[in-house]
Amino acid sequence: MGKVYITTAIPYVNGVPHVGHAVDYLLADVCARYQKQLGNEVRFQAGTDEHGSKIWQKAKEQNIPVEEYVAANSKKFQDFISKLGVEYTDFVRTTDSDHQERVQKIWEKIKDHIYLAKYEGWYCSGCERFITDKEYEENNGVCPDHQKPYEKLEEENYYLKISDFKDQIKDAIESHKMLILPEFREKEILKLLEESPDVSISRPRSQLTWGIPVPGDDNQVMYVWMDALSNYITVLGYPDEDISNWWPAYAQFVGKDILRFHALIWPAILLALGLELPKTLSSHGMILANGQKMSKSIGNVIDPLEVLEKHGTEAFRYYFLRHVDTFADSDFTWEKFEDAYNNELANDLGNLVQRLSTMCKKNNFSLNHVPEIKLEKEYCDLMNEFRFKDAFDFAWEKVQAINKKIDDEKPWALSKEGNIEKLNQVLNELVVSLLEVSKLLEPFLPETSSKISNIFAGEIMPPAEPLFPKK
Protein backbone atom coordinates (compact mmCIF):
# COMPACT_ATOMS: atom_id res chain seq x y z
CA MET A 1 0.00 0.00 0.00
CA GLY A 2 1.30 3.42 -0.89
CA LYS A 3 1.15 7.08 0.00
CA VAL A 4 -1.22 9.26 -1.98
CA TYR A 5 -1.30 13.06 -2.13
CA ILE A 6 -4.46 14.86 -3.33
CA THR A 7 -4.93 18.62 -3.72
CA THR A 8 -7.67 21.20 -4.24
CA ALA A 9 -7.32 24.66 -5.77
CA ILE A 10 -7.03 27.34 -3.10
CA PRO A 11 -9.85 29.89 -3.38
CA TYR A 12 -9.22 33.61 -3.37
CA VAL A 13 -10.63 35.00 -0.13
CA ASN A 14 -12.14 38.24 -1.45
CA GLY A 15 -15.53 36.50 -1.64
CA VAL A 16 -17.63 33.82 0.04
CA PRO A 17 -17.63 30.08 -0.74
CA HIS A 18 -19.70 29.16 -3.81
CA VAL A 19 -20.91 25.90 -5.36
CA GLY A 20 -17.86 25.69 -7.66
CA HIS A 21 -15.63 25.47 -4.58
CA ALA A 22 -17.91 22.76 -3.20
CA VAL A 23 -17.46 20.61 -6.32
CA ASP A 24 -13.67 20.91 -6.07
CA TYR A 25 -13.67 19.80 -2.43
CA LEU A 26 -16.19 16.99 -2.94
CA LEU A 27 -14.37 15.41 -5.89
CA ALA A 28 -11.10 15.46 -3.96
CA ASP A 29 -12.82 14.04 -0.89
CA VAL A 30 -14.35 11.15 -2.88
CA CYS A 31 -10.91 10.42 -4.32
CA ALA A 32 -9.28 10.53 -0.85
CA ARG A 33 -11.90 8.28 0.77
CA TYR A 34 -11.64 5.75 -2.06
CA GLN A 35 -7.84 5.67 -1.77
CA LYS A 36 -8.21 4.99 1.96
CA GLN A 37 -10.60 2.12 1.13
CA LEU A 38 -7.79 0.65 -0.99
CA GLY A 39 -5.55 0.82 2.08
CA ASN A 40 -3.42 3.78 0.98
CA GLU A 41 -2.21 6.50 3.33
CA VAL A 42 -3.60 9.83 2.14
CA ARG A 43 -2.55 13.44 2.52
CA PHE A 44 -5.20 15.85 1.35
CA GLN A 45 -4.49 19.58 1.03
CA ALA A 46 -6.89 22.52 1.14
CA GLY A 47 -6.19 26.18 1.73
CA THR A 48 -6.82 29.84 0.96
CA ASP A 49 -5.14 32.33 -1.38
CA GLU A 50 -4.84 35.56 0.61
CA HIS A 51 -2.66 38.09 -1.22
CA GLY A 52 -3.41 40.55 -4.02
CA SER A 53 -4.72 44.04 -4.67
CA LYS A 54 -8.42 43.05 -4.63
CA ILE A 55 -8.08 41.73 -1.08
CA TRP A 56 -6.15 44.82 0.01
CA GLN A 57 -8.87 46.99 -1.53
CA LYS A 58 -11.75 45.07 0.11
CA ALA A 59 -10.14 45.32 3.57
CA LYS A 60 -9.57 49.05 3.01
CA GLU A 61 -13.22 49.57 1.97
CA GLN A 62 -14.39 47.79 5.12
CA ASN A 63 -11.93 49.80 7.19
CA ILE A 64 -10.38 46.75 8.87
CA PRO A 65 -6.74 45.58 8.94
CA VAL A 66 -6.06 43.30 5.98
CA GLU A 67 -4.74 40.55 8.30
CA GLU A 68 -8.11 40.49 10.09
CA TYR A 69 -10.01 40.46 6.80
CA VAL A 70 -8.14 37.45 5.40
CA ALA A 71 -8.27 35.54 8.71
CA ALA A 72 -12.07 35.95 8.91
CA ASN A 73 -12.57 34.91 5.28
CA SER A 74 -10.20 31.95 5.54
CA LYS A 75 -12.24 30.74 8.52
CA LYS A 76 -15.42 30.91 6.38
CA PHE A 77 -13.83 28.49 3.91
CA GLN A 78 -12.62 26.16 6.66
CA ASP A 79 -16.13 26.07 8.16
CA PHE A 80 -17.63 25.47 4.71
CA ILE A 81 -15.30 22.53 4.02
CA SER A 82 -16.25 21.04 7.37
CA LYS A 83 -20.00 21.42 6.59
CA LEU A 84 -19.44 19.42 3.37
CA GLY A 85 -18.10 16.49 5.39
CA VAL A 86 -14.74 16.86 3.64
CA GLU A 87 -11.76 15.50 5.59
CA TYR A 88 -8.51 17.24 4.61
CA THR A 89 -5.23 16.60 6.43
CA ASP A 90 -3.39 19.86 5.64
CA PHE A 91 -4.64 23.42 5.39
CA VAL A 92 -2.40 26.17 4.00
CA ARG A 93 -2.93 29.91 4.16
CA THR A 94 -0.68 31.89 1.84
CA THR A 95 -0.18 34.46 4.62
CA ASP A 96 1.37 31.75 6.86
CA SER A 97 4.98 32.72 7.63
CA ASP A 98 6.18 29.19 6.73
CA HIS A 99 4.57 29.43 3.30
CA GLN A 100 5.98 32.91 2.64
CA GLU A 101 9.54 31.91 3.59
CA ARG A 102 9.34 28.74 1.49
CA VAL A 103 8.06 30.60 -1.57
CA GLN A 104 10.99 33.02 -1.32
CA LYS A 105 13.38 30.02 -1.21
CA ILE A 106 11.60 28.54 -4.25
CA TRP A 107 12.12 31.85 -6.09
CA GLU A 108 15.86 31.72 -5.30
CA LYS A 109 16.07 28.10 -6.49
CA ILE A 110 14.59 28.89 -9.93
CA LYS A 111 16.15 32.31 -10.50
CA ASP A 112 18.15 31.03 -13.50
CA HIS A 113 14.80 30.84 -15.29
CA ILE A 114 13.62 34.32 -14.18
CA TYR A 115 14.40 37.62 -15.90
CA LEU A 116 13.38 41.27 -15.50
CA ALA A 117 11.63 42.93 -18.46
CA LYS A 118 9.32 45.80 -19.34
CA TYR A 119 5.71 44.88 -20.01
CA GLU A 120 3.48 46.96 -22.18
CA GLY A 121 0.04 45.56 -22.88
CA TRP A 122 -3.35 44.64 -21.48
CA TYR A 123 -4.40 43.74 -17.96
CA CYS A 124 -7.69 42.75 -16.29
CA SER A 125 -7.91 43.94 -12.69
CA GLY A 126 -10.94 41.67 -12.09
CA CYS A 127 -9.02 38.52 -13.14
CA GLU A 128 -5.77 40.01 -11.80
CA ARG A 129 -3.94 38.78 -14.87
CA PHE A 130 -2.25 40.01 -18.03
CA ILE A 131 -4.09 39.52 -21.32
CA THR A 132 -2.48 38.56 -24.63
CA ASP A 133 -3.15 40.68 -27.72
CA LYS A 134 -5.01 37.71 -29.20
CA GLU A 135 -7.35 37.51 -26.17
CA TYR A 136 -7.84 41.26 -26.31
CA GLU A 137 -8.96 41.04 -29.95
CA GLU A 138 -11.14 37.95 -29.42
CA ASN A 139 -12.99 39.69 -26.56
CA ASN A 140 -13.16 43.11 -28.28
CA GLY A 141 -11.16 44.67 -25.47
CA VAL A 142 -13.66 43.73 -22.75
CA CYS A 143 -13.27 41.00 -20.12
CA PRO A 144 -16.14 38.49 -20.68
CA ASP A 145 -16.20 37.55 -16.97
CA HIS A 146 -16.18 41.05 -15.49
CA GLN A 147 -17.69 43.08 -18.36
CA LYS A 148 -15.00 45.72 -17.92
CA PRO A 149 -12.60 47.06 -20.55
CA TYR A 150 -9.01 45.81 -20.24
CA GLU A 151 -6.53 48.38 -18.94
CA LYS A 152 -3.37 49.37 -20.78
CA LEU A 153 -0.35 48.83 -18.55
CA GLU A 154 3.32 49.65 -18.81
CA GLU A 155 5.52 48.32 -16.01
CA GLU A 156 8.70 46.39 -15.24
CA ASN A 157 8.16 42.85 -13.96
CA TYR A 158 10.00 39.59 -13.42
CA TYR A 159 9.14 36.82 -15.88
CA LEU A 160 9.33 33.05 -15.69
CA LYS A 161 10.75 31.49 -18.85
CA ILE A 162 7.96 29.12 -19.82
CA SER A 163 9.90 28.84 -23.09
CA ASP A 164 12.62 26.83 -21.30
CA PHE A 165 10.16 24.01 -20.55
CA LYS A 166 7.67 23.87 -23.41
CA ASP A 167 9.06 20.66 -24.93
CA GLN A 168 9.13 18.85 -21.57
CA ILE A 169 5.58 19.94 -20.72
CA LYS A 170 4.36 18.90 -24.18
CA ASP A 171 6.00 15.46 -23.84
CA ALA A 172 4.52 14.97 -20.34
CA ILE A 173 1.01 15.80 -21.58
CA GLU A 174 1.18 13.74 -24.77
CA SER A 175 2.67 10.70 -23.01
CA HIS A 176 0.09 11.05 -20.18
CA LYS A 177 2.91 11.19 -17.65
CA MET A 178 0.87 14.21 -16.55
CA LEU A 179 -2.67 13.14 -17.44
CA ILE A 180 -5.14 15.94 -18.15
CA LEU A 181 -8.80 15.10 -17.57
CA PRO A 182 -11.21 15.22 -19.26
CA GLU A 183 -9.33 14.11 -22.37
CA PHE A 184 -10.84 16.79 -24.63
CA ARG A 185 -9.09 19.47 -22.55
CA GLU A 186 -5.71 17.99 -23.48
CA LYS A 187 -5.88 19.39 -27.04
CA GLU A 188 -6.87 22.84 -25.71
CA ILE A 189 -3.90 22.88 -23.33
CA LEU A 190 -1.43 21.74 -26.01
CA LYS A 191 -2.66 24.56 -28.28
CA LEU A 192 -2.32 27.10 -25.43
CA LEU A 193 1.17 25.78 -24.67
CA GLU A 194 2.23 26.42 -28.26
CA GLU A 195 1.06 30.05 -28.01
CA SER A 196 2.01 30.64 -24.37
CA PRO A 197 4.39 33.54 -23.76
CA ASP A 198 6.73 33.75 -20.76
CA VAL A 199 4.65 34.73 -17.77
CA SER A 200 4.89 37.69 -15.40
CA ILE A 201 5.47 36.51 -11.81
CA SER A 202 5.81 39.88 -10.05
CA ARG A 203 4.24 43.32 -9.91
CA PRO A 204 5.79 46.63 -8.82
CA ARG A 205 5.17 47.33 -5.13
CA SER A 206 3.52 50.59 -6.23
CA GLN A 207 0.79 48.49 -7.93
CA LEU A 208 0.58 45.59 -5.48
CA THR A 209 1.37 46.28 -1.83
CA TRP A 210 -0.15 43.16 -0.26
CA GLY A 211 2.04 40.23 -1.24
CA ILE A 212 5.28 38.33 -0.63
CA PRO A 213 8.38 40.46 -1.34
CA VAL A 214 10.63 39.33 -4.19
CA PRO A 215 13.97 38.26 -2.66
CA GLY A 216 16.62 40.90 -3.29
CA ASP A 217 14.30 43.48 -4.87
CA ASP A 218 12.31 45.72 -2.53
CA ASN A 219 10.48 47.32 -5.46
CA GLN A 220 8.73 44.09 -6.52
CA VAL A 221 6.14 41.82 -4.93
CA MET A 222 5.42 38.26 -6.05
CA TYR A 223 2.44 37.81 -8.28
CA VAL A 224 -0.22 35.15 -7.69
CA TRP A 225 1.32 32.33 -9.76
CA MET A 226 4.47 31.96 -7.70
CA ASP A 227 2.67 32.53 -4.41
CA ALA A 228 -0.54 30.51 -4.85
CA LEU A 229 0.63 27.62 -7.04
CA SER A 230 3.60 26.87 -4.78
CA ASN A 231 1.21 26.10 -1.91
CA TYR A 232 0.90 22.49 -3.10
CA ILE A 233 4.50 21.80 -2.14
CA THR A 234 5.13 24.38 0.62
CA VAL A 235 2.34 22.73 2.67
CA LEU A 236 4.39 19.50 2.48
CA GLY A 237 7.41 21.39 3.82
CA TYR A 238 9.29 22.04 0.55
CA PRO A 239 12.09 23.10 0.19
CA ASP A 240 12.96 22.69 3.90
CA GLU A 241 11.92 19.05 3.98
CA ASP A 242 12.20 16.03 1.67
CA ILE A 243 8.75 15.60 0.07
CA SER A 244 9.52 12.55 -2.08
CA ASN A 245 7.18 10.34 0.01
CA TRP A 246 4.23 12.43 -1.18
CA TRP A 247 5.27 14.17 -4.37
CA PRO A 248 4.35 13.91 -7.24
CA ALA A 249 0.68 14.43 -6.39
CA TYR A 250 -1.59 11.53 -7.33
CA ALA A 251 -4.33 14.01 -8.33
CA GLN A 252 -4.85 17.77 -8.39
CA PHE A 253 -8.48 18.92 -8.68
CA VAL A 254 -9.18 22.29 -10.32
CA GLY A 255 -11.99 24.14 -12.06
CA LYS A 256 -11.76 24.33 -15.86
CA ASP A 257 -11.24 28.11 -15.65
CA ILE A 258 -7.86 27.68 -13.90
CA LEU A 259 -6.68 24.50 -15.63
CA ARG A 260 -4.40 26.46 -18.00
CA PHE A 261 -2.36 27.86 -15.09
CA HIS A 262 -2.05 24.42 -13.51
CA ALA A 263 -1.13 22.78 -16.81
CA LEU A 264 1.34 25.41 -18.09
CA ILE A 265 2.77 27.67 -15.36
CA TRP A 266 2.77 25.12 -12.53
CA PRO A 267 4.68 22.46 -14.52
CA ALA A 268 7.23 25.11 -15.54
CA ILE A 269 7.83 25.97 -11.86
CA LEU A 270 8.15 22.28 -10.96
CA LEU A 271 10.55 21.54 -13.83
CA ALA A 272 12.66 24.57 -12.89
CA LEU A 273 12.89 23.06 -9.38
CA GLY A 274 13.80 19.64 -10.75
CA LEU A 275 10.59 18.11 -9.34
CA GLU A 276 8.26 15.63 -11.05
CA LEU A 277 4.96 16.77 -12.52
CA PRO A 278 1.63 15.78 -10.92
CA LYS A 279 0.29 12.45 -12.18
CA THR A 280 -3.22 13.77 -12.94
CA LEU A 281 -4.81 17.19 -13.35
CA SER A 282 -8.56 16.65 -13.14
CA SER A 283 -10.68 19.64 -14.15
CA HIS A 284 -14.39 20.01 -13.51
CA GLY A 285 -16.98 22.21 -15.21
CA MET A 286 -19.14 25.05 -13.96
CA ILE A 287 -22.44 24.80 -12.11
CA LEU A 288 -25.11 26.67 -14.04
CA ALA A 289 -28.40 27.92 -12.60
CA ASN A 290 -31.34 27.17 -14.90
CA GLY A 291 -28.87 26.80 -17.76
CA GLN A 292 -27.24 30.20 -17.18
CA LYS A 293 -23.89 31.10 -15.73
CA MET A 294 -24.35 32.23 -12.12
CA SER A 295 -23.91 35.94 -11.69
CA LYS A 296 -24.66 38.47 -8.97
CA SER A 297 -25.92 40.92 -11.57
CA ILE A 298 -28.50 38.40 -12.89
CA GLY A 299 -29.30 37.47 -9.28
CA ASN A 300 -29.22 33.71 -9.90
CA VAL A 301 -26.38 32.74 -7.56
CA ILE A 302 -27.09 29.53 -5.62
CA ASP A 303 -25.80 29.85 -2.06
CA PRO A 304 -24.37 26.44 -1.08
CA LEU A 305 -24.86 27.25 2.62
CA GLU A 306 -28.60 27.65 1.98
CA VAL A 307 -28.72 24.21 0.31
CA LEU A 308 -26.77 22.65 3.20
CA GLU A 309 -29.00 24.36 5.76
CA LYS A 310 -32.17 23.16 4.07
CA HIS A 311 -31.23 19.57 3.21
CA GLY A 312 -28.06 18.65 5.11
CA THR A 313 -24.61 17.42 4.11
CA GLU A 314 -25.45 14.01 2.68
CA ALA A 315 -28.21 15.30 0.38
CA PHE A 316 -25.85 18.06 -0.81
CA ARG A 317 -23.12 15.50 -1.52
CA TYR A 318 -25.63 13.25 -3.30
CA TYR A 319 -26.80 15.93 -5.73
CA PHE A 320 -23.43 17.49 -6.49
CA LEU A 321 -21.69 14.14 -6.95
CA ARG A 322 -24.37 12.21 -8.85
CA HIS A 323 -26.36 14.88 -10.69
CA VAL A 324 -23.34 17.01 -11.55
CA ASP A 325 -21.04 15.70 -14.26
CA THR A 326 -17.51 15.02 -12.96
CA PHE A 327 -15.98 16.89 -15.90
CA ALA A 328 -18.57 18.95 -17.81
CA ASP A 329 -20.82 21.93 -16.98
CA SER A 330 -23.99 20.92 -15.13
CA ASP A 331 -27.24 22.57 -14.16
CA PHE A 332 -28.72 23.22 -10.73
CA THR A 333 -32.33 24.10 -10.02
CA TRP A 334 -34.19 23.73 -6.74
CA GLU A 335 -36.78 21.59 -8.57
CA LYS A 336 -34.10 19.14 -9.76
CA PHE A 337 -32.54 19.05 -6.31
CA GLU A 338 -35.81 18.37 -4.52
CA ASP A 339 -36.85 15.78 -7.09
CA ALA A 340 -33.53 13.93 -6.57
CA TYR A 341 -33.94 14.16 -2.80
CA ASN A 342 -37.52 12.86 -2.64
CA ASN A 343 -37.54 10.34 -5.48
CA GLU A 344 -34.04 8.94 -5.16
CA LEU A 345 -32.55 9.52 -1.72
CA ALA A 346 -35.80 9.24 0.25
CA ASN A 347 -37.56 6.66 -1.98
CA ASP A 348 -34.80 4.47 -3.42
CA LEU A 349 -32.41 4.40 -0.46
CA GLY A 350 -34.15 5.74 2.65
CA ASN A 351 -37.26 3.65 2.06
CA LEU A 352 -35.15 0.56 1.27
CA VAL A 353 -33.28 0.80 4.58
CA GLN A 354 -36.54 1.29 6.49
CA ARG A 355 -38.38 -1.56 4.73
CA LEU A 356 -35.59 -4.10 4.96
CA SER A 357 -34.60 -3.38 8.56
CA THR A 358 -38.27 -3.53 9.66
CA MET A 359 -38.74 -6.90 7.91
CA CYS A 360 -35.55 -8.25 9.54
CA LYS A 361 -36.64 -7.06 12.99
CA LYS A 362 -40.15 -8.44 12.58
CA ASN A 363 -38.79 -11.87 11.57
CA ASN A 364 -35.96 -11.89 14.16
CA PHE A 365 -33.36 -12.06 11.39
CA SER A 366 -29.74 -10.98 11.78
CA LEU A 367 -26.56 -12.00 9.97
CA ASN A 368 -24.65 -14.90 11.50
CA HIS A 369 -21.43 -13.29 10.32
CA VAL A 370 -20.68 -10.18 8.29
CA PRO A 371 -18.91 -11.27 5.09
CA GLU A 372 -15.70 -9.56 3.97
CA ILE A 373 -16.78 -7.14 1.27
CA LYS A 374 -14.54 -6.52 -1.72
CA LEU A 375 -14.97 -3.63 -4.13
CA GLU A 376 -16.08 -4.77 -7.59
CA LYS A 377 -13.67 -4.41 -10.51
CA GLU A 378 -16.09 -2.34 -12.64
CA TYR A 379 -16.53 0.16 -9.79
CA CYS A 380 -12.76 0.32 -9.16
CA ASP A 381 -12.07 0.87 -12.86
CA LEU A 382 -14.45 3.85 -12.90
CA MET A 383 -12.97 5.29 -9.69
CA ASN A 384 -9.40 4.81 -10.96
CA GLU A 385 -10.35 6.71 -14.12
CA PHE A 386 -11.80 9.55 -11.95
CA ARG A 387 -15.26 8.87 -13.44
CA PHE A 388 -16.88 9.46 -10.07
CA LYS A 389 -20.40 10.23 -11.31
CA ASP A 390 -20.38 6.96 -13.29
CA ALA A 391 -19.14 5.03 -10.24
CA PHE A 392 -21.93 6.61 -8.16
CA ASP A 393 -24.47 5.62 -10.85
CA PHE A 394 -23.08 2.06 -10.74
CA ALA A 395 -23.68 1.96 -6.96
CA TRP A 396 -27.17 3.43 -7.35
CA GLU A 397 -28.16 0.79 -9.88
CA LYS A 398 -27.40 -1.75 -7.15
CA VAL A 399 -29.71 0.14 -4.76
CA GLN A 400 -32.48 -0.07 -7.36
CA ALA A 401 -31.74 -3.78 -7.97
CA ILE A 402 -32.21 -4.54 -4.25
CA ASN A 403 -35.57 -2.75 -4.29
CA LYS A 404 -36.58 -4.82 -7.32
CA LYS A 405 -35.48 -8.05 -5.61
CA ILE A 406 -37.67 -7.22 -2.59
CA ASP A 407 -40.66 -6.65 -4.90
CA ASP A 408 -39.92 -9.88 -6.82
CA GLU A 409 -39.16 -12.15 -3.83
CA LYS A 410 -41.93 -10.73 -1.56
CA PRO A 411 -40.40 -11.64 1.84
CA TRP A 412 -43.67 -10.66 3.59
CA ALA A 413 -45.49 -13.41 1.66
CA LEU A 414 -42.82 -15.99 2.65
CA SER A 415 -43.31 -14.92 6.26
CA LYS A 416 -47.10 -15.39 6.03
CA GLU A 417 -46.65 -18.83 4.46
CA GLY A 418 -44.27 -19.80 7.29
CA ASN A 419 -41.50 -20.57 4.75
CA ILE A 420 -38.80 -19.58 7.25
CA GLU A 421 -35.86 -21.23 5.51
CA LYS A 422 -36.52 -19.45 2.22
CA LEU A 423 -37.34 -16.21 4.08
CA ASN A 424 -34.00 -16.28 5.92
CA GLN A 425 -32.14 -17.02 2.70
CA VAL A 426 -33.81 -14.07 0.92
CA LEU A 427 -33.26 -11.66 3.83
CA ASN A 428 -29.63 -12.80 4.07
CA GLU A 429 -29.06 -12.08 0.35
CA LEU A 430 -30.75 -8.69 0.61
CA VAL A 431 -28.82 -7.59 3.70
CA VAL A 432 -25.45 -8.72 2.28
CA SER A 433 -26.25 -6.90 -0.99
CA LEU A 434 -27.10 -3.73 0.94
CA LEU A 435 -23.86 -3.93 2.94
CA GLU A 436 -21.96 -4.31 -0.35
CA VAL A 437 -23.73 -1.23 -1.71
CA SER A 438 -22.97 0.63 1.50
CA LYS A 439 -19.25 0.10 0.86
CA LEU A 440 -19.60 1.45 -2.69
CA LEU A 441 -21.43 4.50 -1.33
CA GLU A 442 -18.84 5.20 1.37
CA PRO A 443 -16.71 7.73 -0.59
CA PHE A 444 -19.84 9.60 -1.70
CA LEU A 445 -22.18 9.39 1.32
CA PRO A 446 -19.89 8.54 4.26
CA GLU A 447 -22.45 9.24 7.02
CA THR A 448 -25.20 7.25 5.29
CA SER A 449 -22.83 4.37 4.57
CA SER A 450 -21.82 4.26 8.24
CA LYS A 451 -25.48 4.33 9.37
CA ILE A 452 -26.35 1.42 7.05
CA SER A 453 -23.43 -0.64 8.36
CA ASN A 454 -24.47 0.08 11.96
CA ILE A 455 -28.10 -0.92 11.28
CA PHE A 456 -27.39 -4.19 9.44
CA ALA A 457 -23.98 -5.47 10.58
CA GLY A 458 -25.08 -6.64 14.06
CA GLU A 459 -28.47 -7.08 15.67
CA ILE A 460 -30.72 -5.34 13.15
CA MET A 461 -32.54 -2.32 14.55
CA PRO A 462 -34.65 -0.15 12.23
CA PRO A 463 -33.75 3.54 12.46
CA ALA A 464 -36.04 5.59 14.70
CA GLU A 465 -36.72 7.90 11.79
CA PRO A 466 -36.12 7.60 8.03
CA LEU A 467 -32.57 8.35 6.85
CA PHE A 468 -34.02 10.91 4.43
CA PRO A 469 -37.41 12.20 5.62
CA LYS A 470 -39.43 13.49 2.65
CA LYS A 471 -39.51 17.27 2.43
Write a structural description.
It is a single chain. It is built from 18 helices and 16 strands. The chain has 471 residues and is of the alpha/beta class. α10 links the parallel β12 and β13. α6 packs antiparallel against α7.
Describe what is shown at a glance.
By secondary structure, the protein is of the alpha/beta class. It has helices at residues 19-37, 53-61, 66-83, 97-109, 133-138, 166-174, 184-195, 224-229, 231-234, 259-273, 304-311, 313-322, 334-362, 377-384, 388-409, 411-417, 420-441, 446-456; strands at 3-8, 41-48, 90-93, 114-124, 129-131, 151-160, 179-181, 199-200, 202-204, 213-214, 217-222, 251-255, 280-284, 287-289, 292-293, 330-332.
Judged by helices, strands and strand pairing, the structural class is: alpha/beta
Shape: elongated
Q: Stretches where pLDDT falls below 50 for ≥5 residues?
A: none
Give the biggest beta sheet. 6 strands, parallel
Helix percentage range: 40-55%
Strand content: 15-25%
Q: Topology of this structure?
A:
Blueprint: E1 3-8, H1 19-37, E2 41-48, H2 53-61, H3 66-83, E3 90-93, H4 97-109, E4 114-124, E5 129-131, H5 133-138, E6 151-160, H6 166-174, E7 179-181, H7 184-195, E8 199-200, E9 202-204, E10 213-214, E11 217-222, H8 224-229, H9 231-234, E12 251-255, H10 259-273, E13 280-284, E14 287-289, E15 292-293, H11 304-311, H12 313-322, E16 330-332, H13 334-362, H14 377-384, H15 388-409, H16 411-417, H17 420-441, H18 446-456
Parallel strand pairs: 1-2, 1-12, 2-3, 7-13, 12-13, 14-16
Antiparallel strand pairs: 4-5, 4-6, 6-8, 9-11, 10-11, 14-15
Helix pairs in contact: 2-3, 6-7, 11-12, 13-15, 13-17, 14-15, 15-17, 16-17, 17-18
